[in-house]
Amino acid sequence: MQSLQTGIRASEVGVNRQVISLAMLVLLAAGCGLCTAAPPDDVRFNRDVRPILSNNCFYCHGPDPKHREADLRLDTSDGALAMVVVPGRPDKSPLIERVTSHDDDMRMPPPASKKGRLSDQQIAILRRWIEQGAKYEGHWSFLPLAKAEEPAVKNEAWVKNPIDRFILARLEQEGIVPSPEADAATLIRRLSLDLTGLLPTPQEAEQFASEFSPSLRPSVSPSGNEGETESQRDSEKAYAALVERLLNSPHYGERWGRHWLDQARYADSSGYSIDSERQMWPYRDWVIQATNDDMPFDRFTIEQLAGDLLPNPNKGQLVATAFHRNTLINEEGGTDPKQFRHEAVVDRVNTTAAVWLGLTVGCAQCHTHKFDPISHREYYELFAFFNNTTDVNNKGATVSVARGEMFGQIPEPPPPPPELVEGFAQRQAAWEKEQLALVAPASTLPVTWHPLEYVEAGTSSGTALKRLEDNSLLAASPIANHDAYRIVAKTGLKPLAALRLRVLTHDSLPKQGPGRAGNGNFVLTKVTASAAGNPLKLVSARADHEQPEYGVAGTLDDDPQTGWAINVGPKSQAKMNADHEAVFVLATPLAADGPIEIRLLHELHGDYLIGRFALEASETAPPGTTRVDKELAEALAMPPESRSTKQALLVRDAFIAADPQARAAKARREAAAAKAADVMVMKELDQPRETYISLRGDFLRPDKDVGPLSPGGLKAVAPAFPAQAGRTRVDLAKWLVSPENPLTPRVTMNRVWMRYFGRGLVETEEDFGTQGTSPSHPELLDWLAMEFVTGPKSNVQGLPWSMKHMHRLIVMSNTYRQSSKIRPDLAEKDPRNQLLARQERTRVEAEIVRDAALSASGLLDRTIGGPSVRPPQPDGVYAFTQTAKKWTPDTGPARYRRGMYTQFFRSAPYPLFTTFDAPDFSTVCTRRIRSNTPLQALTVANDEAFVEIAQGLAARVIREVPADDSPARLKRAFLLCLCRQPNDRELAALQGYYDRQLAELKQDEARAKQLLPTSQQPNASPATAAAMVLASRAILNTDGFITRE
Amino acid sequence: MSTSAQSEIRNPKSEIAIATRRHFFSQCGVGVGSMALAALFQSDGLAAPNIDPAHPLAPRQPHFPAQAKSVIYLFMAGAPSQLELFDDKPKLRDLHGQPPPKSLLEGKRFAFLKGNETLLGATRKLERVGQVGMDLGELLPHHRKIVDEVCWLRGMTTDVFNHGPAKLFVNTGFPAPGRPAMGAWATYGLGSESRDLPGFVVLQSGPRGPRAGASLWASGFLPTSFQGVPLRSKGDPILHLRSPAGITRQAERDFYNTVGELNRARLDVVGDPEIMTRINAYEMAYRMQTSAPDLMDLSQESADTLREYGVTPGQPSYATNCLLARRLVERGVRFVQLYHTNWDSHGGPGENLNEDFEKVCKDVDQASAALVLDLKQRGLLHDTLVIWGGEFGRTPMGEVRNTIGRDHHIDAYTMWLAGGGVKSGFMHGQTDELGFGVVEGKVHVHDLQATVLHLLGFDHERLTYRFQGRDFRLTDVHGRVVQEILA
Fold first, then answer.
1. Helices in B28-81 by DSSP H: which ranges?
2. Quick one: A669 and A702 in the same domain?
3. Fewest C-beta atoms under 10 Å: which of A20, A332, A956, B60?
């Protein structure tokens, strides 16, 4: 006893605050509202005892040997029986003595753990458990799937399938009656949103209502039992037909594919701070297609984790492995690629465990898990499966995939390159002659530089450019590391042949400048000029002084890493902190004398911005310059056969740029190439890497004592792998979906359930470990899992691991079909609706907010798959990212694609998504939160994208109800959005609003026109059309619109 | 409603509470939805606030009279070096360049240090100033003006050494996303005096946003009414704030009325409390359309004020945000949080302890001091708590990158508090001679949180929210009010 006591006291020093808090969380979670007050007669270890021990004892007396006190462990029967539990004899068991002790030195948990005494109830449970033999059970989620008996229920008529038995049996036990079936309008909207994420058309909604609701059916059978049965049968048929139609819709694959993409942490950019764009959309296509094909989940698993290792993998199987190439890539300078390769592998381990096993294994990255039976070693045995791929941060295997290829389309052969198009050689030869003539000096005339008259001068950061008296511009102190200056100026020159940029010193600048960097330097990475929107090609930049490796020529290429700077070497005669100048010659003198726009970009190094400068122009190019790039001029001067490969390419590319025909051929080829993408995939190394335990999770500290590990699974979850050499990711994938692994089907079915009822049967769907919550309906969960793994008994539809079969079962159940109306009678008994006596009303996900609105308005482009698109987004989204992203909104149908196709930058997601709780997909996301905020209100009310949608909806309504009948039109809009007719109160509110706005808009046609799209004019007066836009906007902004009831 | 809601805080299960709900049901013309909503907000925790479902941000009384009515939290994102700014260690200078004593490194982890680094004496001059006798670095000259106004915490410690987790830890009491931020707890407990602006506002300045982003001001499992709302410094202060072209303010009122009526009509049919929250969200959105631009309009400030803060009108900056923070507090906003990046002085590009550090010090020095003095002069400081600090400190060892910087250090760093019921001109906490650990007056992050809640009038152990069967709180199961610093 003495040693036990000392040991425990010593332990308090190292008590980890976070872990205790986690324990507390579950302690209380386990004691949730559905527990009884007195200890049950039949104490069950998992249900009753484990929560007490786990939360109060395991931290010091649990699985982690490094943290174990007094060599006592209570998480195993052997451990407890050896020291503190005497089965059948609570009074002889030190465990009871210690938890009941009033001596602070004796009491467990010790006072310093701040856990407080066990309650009398908890002590009574422990006592009874010991009386009854102190039997241990494994943690519920690790136990094999139990063959669940379908329980008997009183109200047999309510049962559509076994799911209902499990739900109803529990409700009957609690004396709760389930809710009635929702009405037809709610059901079709619910099913459509759940299965496809789109709204039904009014035709579909009306047709379903008439088939489903007996009262709406044209010929109602005569009353009587027989008639009712028949009418019920018809309703059932209509409902089943609707379910089948939706399950077979190609949009089903988008909807459920998107859920999967959350787990795959799919995004269109690389993450971290640079976060450049990447092309992973073929993987998204693959997911959509596999989901639509109802690829069995075991195969779905194997192809994504190990498609590349299957015999003769097809392209789809290779693309599937992009699942684990969705990891982040750090493109910052100075990073250690090995570190980020390691991070990616860690993420693959954590993601795999979270997605298939519902376990948070991350803790075991640094040490053996404190609560769950996952050892430090096992973590790295899992790690070993993923440690042998060729990818290292931004380098790795790719496969080229054409647009549509994942949907079974055969890619067209690419158009020939321009040089293979007829007549290319002849035209190039002719062009070369012309150019040679230009290589002569551009001018020998003396140059006069004229100051520009600035019309506008601004910066992308918002920093002001202040005009000084000498016509120079001074940048105020910067707020951005990088900045682009934009100057619009009048030249008054005709022609305009050259520009001069003078960088000037100023007292306000560091070391007098002329740059804003600490030493007065700057890096100008790009200079562009344009007139009337047409770019002016600048050639042969020349400067009076250039820093080595920072020549002014670098301002004319597209590489942001090159540019003009002015620092000087230690022995140089030149001076940095002095006025300097650079001259830029136009390839073709500009004939017009209109305003020109000049941009000065600073994209390299923080704060390396020009501080003060002036711009001037000349009608002639300065002597010594030519209108041809220096390198090009040299290449042209050589006879073609003597040119180096580089020179030959330089000439060829210059010609292609100049020749319309060749340019068109090049554009065609590029367009074809743009339809393909090199998607990153997994590829195994020939020689596997050795995997060691990383001490404290540090990849620089391999535990060489333990030696290289062979890949392995988690022994607590399912039997270890058979002894065999060369275990691969295929083996891991097969282990995950093996019949012995109870977690994969439980976790997967629980998540499916969560999508339909707002929360899982296990609420902590991400944690099936000992710290997670227990299932509310354990037998149902196991029944679903079993059904999923074995497939339907009656061989009607579906195979083992069929998702569609499980979806069908759930949505066909009466449990699913219940009304979601809140029931005041359940406020006390089941306030959180855990027993499911009603459906749950949930706000739809971010992408679906957009999709529902697009489908209601009729603007939706239903194209499936392909590269991501860019709908309009507000300015300033990139104010806080390291580099601004290109975002030119699409025009045409691509502007109205589903939300899931919107280009997703991890560092600055499309604002709608963030506002409606989409994560940034840096790591696996298994569940999204649902918030409800004023920002959401402002988004749907004012976002340009939603204004267009309101306009589209109004135009559709006017098109579909051509007569100027506002009540009919308002009802139509309501139906399009909510699939039902407005009630009197709703119609009165809408009609009143419409009438008031119409009256005002009639008085003010200019305002009406502002509310209408410029492109198409609907067939109504501007005031009428605009009032309908406003009414449409109001309906889109209701809670009901973004809610699935 | 709000007054009766206030009166029942102490005993929400009293008859008053029931009567209130009856009143709500009968007088307010709302149906079963609101009843269910009231039930939902009825917390099991005895001391938890009783929230009026129609107005989740209505002002509420705390457990006991509060010292501070509002909080301005100046978050120095990336973690400033206490050794250059606040904690002079002559011994560290003496041992500059030598390996640190092994005993001090035992069992310690650092984010980036490899183990072969040597001690780095302060790279800047520090001077003992003020009556309080505080070490102040030369890069914070304006802080000298407030050295005797603020309460210096030199014994701060935290648990986690990466930016994201550590920022989450100090904001939410837990190092992973998903829990409510301090500002969310404050507005949950107290509501907000402002009806026209969010109760919890977040501002950002510096080259980029803080790591961990929006999870730092999330409401976690609390109702989302208490979530922090970012105000942007460029363009419209709030995304999508502006009504579409062609809609007058009057027409917009009609729009919001109509949407509200449609929502109420549905609420009466389905009874979902979430609809009530949506109705409130829309009302707030409408009010924000005028209140936010008015807030941002700095032409209402005198030239003197702008100069004191160092504000250049039209130019987003930390200084502008400090001034906005005062304006927010004046308007009754409960919790304002400013993030300024980048203090992460590892020594690499953009993060060196030389000009980069000088710049970030210069960014915040003047306005931080001006804010305290301005609040004081306007009589706002006594009930406004100002918090200044990062997510952790920086190591006494140098970190070798392009230049020598310092790595993350969790065992000893400095923060300061001002106003709102803390002692002024007071120094609490002392570190060992090399600045590795705290030898006296240690304040753990959970203690800081307990103290902030105490100043707002709450017993941190009783400001709870029941979620998944547990009464959660900001301080988790820890925290102790730092009595020594209370005025």
1. 32-41
2. no
3. A332
Number of domains in chain A: 6
Interface of B with A in 166-195 (CB under 8 A): 174-175
User: Residue B220, Cβ neighbours under 10 Å: how many?
Assistant: 21
Last residue in a domain, options A107, A137, A167? A137
* Residue of chain A minimizing CA distance to B179: A929
In-domain check, residue A560: yes
Ramachandran category for residue B220: left, alpha or beta (phi over 0 → left; psi -120 to 50 → alpha): left
ipTM: 0.75
User: Helix or strand or coil: residue A773?
Assistant: coil
In a domain, A142, yes or no: no
What is the maximal distance between C-alpha atoms in chain A? 112
My answer on whether A528 and A653 are in the same domain is no
Question: A113-162 pLDDT, tens per residue?
Answer: 767 888 888 999 999 999 988 888 888 999 999 887 899 999 999 999 99
Q: Which of A880, A917, A987, A1004 to mutate to test the interface with B (most CBs of B within 10 A)?
A: A880
**Residue type at A415 in one-letter notation:** P
**Long-range Cβ contact pairs of A663-670 (< 8 A, separation 24 or more):** A663/A418, A665/A415, A665/A416, A665/A417, A665/A418, A665/A421, A666/A417, A666/A418, A668/A415, A669/A414, A669/A415, A669/A416, A669/A417, A669/A418
State how far the Cα of B439 lies from the Cα of B23, in Å rounded to an integer.
57
Which residue type occupies A645?
T
Domain residue limits at A705: 264-403+685-741
State whether B468 and A1026 contact (CB < 8 Å). Answer: no
Same domain for A453 and A489, yes or no, is yes
pLDDT, tens digit (0-9, with 9 covering 90-100), for A593-621? 788 999 999 988 777 899 999 999 988 88
State the Cα–Cα distance between residues B454 and B447, nearest whole angstrom: 10
Neighbours of A152 (CB within 10 A): 10
> Contact B468/A773, CB-based, under 8 Å?
yes
**Under 8 Å between Cβ of B222 and B188:** yes
One domain, residues A384 and A526: no
CATH of B70-233+316-485 among 1.10.3210.10, 2.60.40.1600, 3.40.720.10, 3.30.1490.190: 3.40.720.10
Identify all chain A residues contacting B317, using CB atoms and an 8 Å cutoff. 479
User: Is residue B11 over pLDDT 50?
Assistant: no
Q: Do A192 and A281 lie in a common domain?
A: no
Q: pTM here?
A: 0.74
Under 8 Å CB-to-CB from A915, ≥6 apart: which residues?
A846, A933, A935, A936, A939, B239
Q: Is residue A940 part of a domain?
A: yes
Low-confidence ranges of chain A (pLDDT < 70): 1-39, 114, 214-228, 273, 332-335, 370-371, 437-445, 478-480, 624-629, 723-726, 794-798, 876-884, 1016-1018
User: CB distance A938–B263 less than 8 Å?
Assistant: no
> How many Cβ pairs within 8 Å bridge chains A and B?
237
Q: Which of A565-574, A963-972, B253-262, B382-391 comes out lowest in average pLDDT?
A: A565-574
Q: Assess whether A289 and A227 both reside in one domain.
A: no
Q: Is residue A482 situated within a structural domain?
A: yes
Closest chain A C-alpha to B169 CA, distance in angstroms: 10
